[in-house]
Amino acid sequence: MKVLDMKSETIISRLHQLLSEIPQLRNLHPKSNEDVFSRWKESVAFFILTALDNNENHPIYIRLNNLLSEGQNITPAFRRQYLRPAELKGVESIIENVISLLEDKNNNTSSPFNNQMDILTNIFQNFHKFAHQLQNRQKNAAPIIIEDEYALQDFVHAILRLHFKRVENEFPLPSFCGKTSRIDFYLNKERIGIEVKLASESLKEDKLRKQLIEDKEQYMKSGYFDEIIFFIFNPYLVLNKPEVLYDIEEQTDSCKVTVIVAP
After folding, report:
1. For the whole model, what pTM was predicted?
2. Cβ count near 221 (within 10 Å)
3. DSSP state letter for 205
4. 165 and 196: one domain?
5. Which of 64, 84, 106 is the endpoint of a domain?
6. How far apart are CA 145 and CA 134, in angstroms?
7. Which residues of the chain are modeled with pLDDT < 70?
């Protein structure tokens, strides 16, 4: 393992320190502590920009600047320095991502992205086998049945935690066209977003496709994800033409959208 160079080591140390101050910021009275928020924001911006080789056009820095500048482009009398909880959450995610980028760069590790996607693809393509096994328990124990989307999310969440260090559920995203949303799961270090759906008689192709299109637009606009996976669990085999859902798959320079339907 390559030893971190002094510049990166210093930046990582300072970013970890700024991360550790976030819980305190959440508990401060926003209006009477704007000077504290202002100094913290300046430090975050400085060290993130330094980590990105002072590239102000880097997508990460642009996203950070948007979060830190929220509320600044309004009438001067109403400008604020404090950050709302959703903004703090976004900045926290960016700091963690940059720390990971620096550590990967200095450790000379190649991107494990393909391997991670292989893991996720295997999980979702074979999820129905996992669900089936839960219904066939030993000694006549009561079967465990995934009856609704909340239960589906719980099982997916548990499986993801076996493979990924940081899994955030119900991750809030920035407002888009006045609409706020959350994605089911965010793999923070890997910058992968996951949305799960349970196909049913009341949620079939037409309705599902409409939801996926709306979600995709919101998620891609957020700038958080390099990869977005829509997993549709189809245990009751209610989807007659699941192939129509694959039409929403897309790949751009910044993000790839994948749809997995199983079984």
Report:
1. 0.60
2. 13
3. H
4. yes
5. 106
6. 7
7. 1-6, 70-79, 106-114, 176-178
